[in-house]
Design brief:
Blueprint: E1 2-4, H1 6-9, H2 20-31, E2 37-40, H3 43-53, H4 59-70, E3 75-77, H5 81-94, H6 98-110, E4 114-116, H7 119-125, E5 131-133
Helix pairs in contact: 3-4, 5-6
């Protein structure tokens, strides 16, 4: 099991970005059953928000991309009260958004690695051995 954040999975859609080849390897390992991927339940909101607000894609293309991501049957995990409380502490401790802290907390809870392509996030939490840069 591995946790991927939205910055990695979005490279499945925007395949010409730096690191897309590595991101696509995670996708392929997931599809083959070799590497299950977990995401927090906020993941789909985050991805849809990026597609709607940070691109010029029309609504039909956004829906198609979102549908493709949905079809990968990712392990979607909700954060209960304890995990949410822990994410708040992580957010404060490392100066990261609560959204990013949710990914960190999920990886902690599942005892697996979190992979991100967000260099700023990685720099802030690099002391956490479970967070890796794509």
């Amino acid at each position: 099991m591995i946790v991927l954040d939205a910055s990695v999975v979005l490279k499945w859609i925007f395949e010409n970005e730096e690191g897309s080849d590595r991101a696509l390897r995670y996708r392929d390992m997931h599809v083959s059953g070799e590497q299950p991927i977990a995401v927090p339940d906020l993941f789909f909101y985050e991805v849809a928000n990026v597609l709607l607000t940070r691109t010029r894609l029309d609504a039909a293309v956004v829906s198609e991309a979102f549908s493709m991501l949905w079809s990968f049957d990712l392990e979607v995990c909700d954060l209960g009260f304890e995990e949410f409380s822990s994410a708040i502490q992580i957010s404060r401790c490392y100066g990261i958004t609560l959204y990013d802290a949710a990914y960190v907390e999920l990886a902690r809870r599942l005892q697996c690695d979190l992979v991100t392509s967000d260099k700023k996030l990685h720099r802030k939490v690099k002391a956490l051995r479970q967070v890796r840069l794509l």
